[in-house]
Design brief:
Blueprint (H helix, E strand, L loop, with lengths): L16 H10 L6 H15 L1 E2 L9 H7 L1 E2 L1 H14 L4 E9 L18 E11 L2 E5 L6 H10 L6 E3 L2 E3 L21 E8 L2 H7 L5 H23 L28
Parallel strand pairs: 1-2
Antiparallel strand pairs: 3-4, 3-8, 4-5, 6-7
Amino acid sequence: MSNNYLSSTSLVDYNAPSIQLLIKERDWQRLSDKEKIGVAYNFVRDEILFGYNSDDALSASKVLADGYGQCNTKGTLLMALLRGLGIQCRFHGFTIDKSLQRGVVPELVYPLAPENIIHSWIEIFYKKEWLNLEGFILDSAVLSALQKHFPERTSLCAYGTGTNCLQSPDIEWNGTSTYIQKTGINKDLGIFDGPDEFYRDHRQLTGLRGAFYRYVVRHWMNHRVAKMRDGHIPKIPGGEHSLVPAPSAQHFYDISS
């Protein structure tokens, strides 16, 4: 087993004072491994709200300070908390079809979004096997709002969600893998020791498009997510067929666990 799975890095900076203080104040070190994973996971899922940061390649301490994040940034914070608690973890990179972000990305700028958007989940070594953690991305308020708005739907690929079991997705940590955006995945970019290594080769928010995202679009997106949290779900042009995975993404990554 690689020692890198417990390493502190520039992004996975679990030695940062804010992260160490959080672990100490919550008294997490006294817990069993299963409990440590659970408290870190639940903290990142629900106390770090679903939202869009200035970049994917942010340090865990910066994400903690922001108080919000998406798949990639929340994942970096979760890795830092887990490694700070002695839980081995690694990074798995993907891309997702941009249809998964429909409803969050304003329709006016949706055509400008990349067709394939960088995505990731965290893999933890628990009871001698690697498990996937992805179900921490949406906070409970956002997911609950979507469930109430679409009470008859099982499959949904929009609004930051990619699942075939909307009313009961695998998002609770109970010793098995968790998912909430899996059905949007359309390319596997491989497994990495951590996000530092991944982002050296895979970046998306660059140039003029990146600046437009950082200074304009993401604030617009965060406003829409806040309204979703309050139960106001934006309408998507195209009707029901817009809410399922694109053909390139559908059933790409079929994991029964």
